[in-house]
Amino acid sequence: MSYRIEDYHAYSGVNFLEHSGIDFSEHTAEDLIRLWRATLNKGMHGICFSMYEDGQQPGDTITEAQVERRVKILKPYAKWIRSFSCIEGNEHVPRIAHKNGMKTLVGAWLSDNKDDNEKEIEGLIQLAKEGCVNIAAVGNEVLYRNDLTLEELLGYIRRVKEAMPDIPVGYVDAYYEFSKHPELVEISDVILSNCYPYWEGCHIDGSLGHMEQMFGQATDAAQGKKVIITETGWPSEGGSFKGADSSEENAIKYFINTQVWAKKQNVEVFYFSSFDESWKTGDEGDVGAYWGLWDKDENLKF
Description:
about 300 residues, eight-stranded parallel β-barrel, two-stranded antiparallel sheet, 10 helices
């Protein structure tokens, strides 16, 4: 979730309504589902890993068996998996993904809990020593949530970079944070950018153009460094946010257009998310539970 009220747009190189996606005006509902399936079957660069079954939530320890089952479901459709934490069973994700021939973007979840932060950082370093980390993400939307100061965050990033000098290290946040904090660009090997047209209230018809603009702003801030979209997606139900409506049709269209654009432009995207997670209704409201390509019972939605 990456929404702020203030004006943070620093790049205007894309027309919202002119983009490299598909014109859906002549597609029936059945056409859209067929195209969604065909797009999924062609494969994605990456997918964000959803840990929790119904009744589970962060803080619960997840078993290797549950992680392995879900990794095997995702393996035919993605080359990379992104994990968000290195404790409470999340450490199983990169190990099992590597065992199944997938690459990993491994995140250490940082918060205002310094004791847990130590466990996360040590867990990330250990996974790197085991050869299970292809890219390391030190923190996720920490500045967006105001959990740490910039200097505290930079300290954690420096520590990880020193511990794994041969692995690309970055920090995940909303695309505009890299324009606001050039220090993040300077310290990062790769720019890890979350891009959510939905959370900026964008109508589905302009959503791909808006996402291109988000990516453009992150690229402009990156000063030549590689930019990866670490999260983008669209909820399939749960309400609306300003001009953005959550619906099955819109979720289908956004997924198709994102994948078509990413392949055309050679942009690495981690789609959010793999499975619906019922616990995610706090800050996000009802839509939080419906971002998956698979439902909460691990069935493809469409």
